[in-house]
Amino acid sequence: MFHMGWFLGDGFGIHPWSPTNGDGPWTGTNATDWMKPGIYVDMATSLERAGFDYILIEDTSMVEDSYNQSSETSLRRGFMAPKNDPLPLVPLMTQVTKHIGIVPTVSTIQYPPFLAARAFTTLDHLTEGRVGMNVVTSVTDRVAQNFGYERHLEHDERYDMAMEWIDVVKALENSWDDGAVIADPIAGIYADHTKVNPIEFVGKYFKCRGPLNTIPGPQRNVPVCSAGSSELGRVLAANYDDTQIAIVKDAADAKTYRQDIRARAAAAGRNPDDIKILFIATPTIAATDAEAHAAYEAAQAFRKTDKAIEYNLWNMSYTSGGRIDFGAIDPDTKVGDIDLSKQNGEYTSIAGLFGGREDETLREVVASSFQVKDMGLVGSPSTVADKMGEIMEEAGGDGFLFYLPTTRMNLAMVSDGLAPELRRRGLIREEYTGSTLKENLTAF
């Protein structure tokens, strides 16, 4: 069996909302309802029915304006803004479910470790152990400037800071020893003060006395997720992650990536089975293979339109950390003539978009190179289920993270079309056996 997750890639933000933007015919009332709980509640109940381990909620805290040096495109088309804070969604989504985990994003430059440890321990109690934290370093200068920085830290330093941040959070989560809570109303003793201790952490980036001023949650240490595939991103994952998400091209690439992370985890003294790597995929599913391939071809054709190219250029500008304005570059410029070293964003994503294409023009690359892959998952539910099984068999595990437009149609296709086919093949769980996110991640 393998694990399943869903990437709410729009965060608690505006989802596909306009058919004229190429968002498709099933956008419903997203334009006016994205800030209300309805679609997130539907998502949680649908994906729990499908046996998913968790829903990962993306987040960013800025209005992107590096493309054409203006926020016009971002706000006109609803790219990454508007967006609400994801943490308040977590109790709403778990209140209507019993098993599925919810993993909101937390940035190490936005949340001081004490605030994060307190917030996520609180959510651990409110969800009865079904919350995780997606730890990110944030990408652009604009985010950093909203939190008191002149410019963002350089890529590698961001990861050094993030690992220290996790160390502080974990120390705070463990600042109450087992047995510290007595809660004896007859004796009138709530806690044993000798088992609640300051952490006295002093590092390069953070200083925190502690202890945490709330009791440990059901999971004690809230599961950590990350998505970095750079060298230091892999170091963080191997040392701290309970689950990691990764972008790969195909099954062979997934196998190589998984073997690398597991070897690093073993070298760090961890059990490699304690890290579940979910590979991001954007499947195209329809009632029949013919319908799915027609939809796939239509999507490929759309990617060459002005609207799709505008999005890809905008996304490349953001992915560079806002340091390269791809809207200001002549589209007939050869990739080899573009100074990609100026970036300070998602290094492996930029390499994946442009690597080996130095002799092509920006126009050629932008119409055919995309950050997230489909891994060949195109077809009917039966066909896609078979392909998923083949990929996991070659990769060795651990599962998939679906990244699809947030519409109720897509939720139905996965939960009521694909999931039953996966179950018939014994590829995903029939029922949940654990009561917490951590238990469900380690169930197999």
TrEMBL record:
Segments forming domain Luciferase-like: 35-398
EC numbers on record: 1.14.-.-
Domain of life, per lineage: Bacteria
Binding site for FMN: D59, T105, H155, Y159, S229, S230
UniProt enzyme class: oxidoreductase
Listed InterPro entries: Diverse_substr_monoxygenases (IPR051260), Luciferase-like_dom (IPR011251), Luciferase-like_sf (IPR036661), NTA_MOA (IPR016215)
Keywords: Flavoprotein, FMN, Monooxygenase, Oxidoreductase
Pfam family, one: Bac_luciferase
SUPFAM superfamilies for this protein: Bacterial luciferase-like (SSF51679)
Family label: Belongs to the NtaA/SnaA/DszA monooxygenase family.
UniProt name for this protein: NtaA/DmoA family FMN-dependent monooxygenase
GO MF, one annotated term: monooxygenase activity
Taxonomic source organism: Gordonia jinghuaiqii
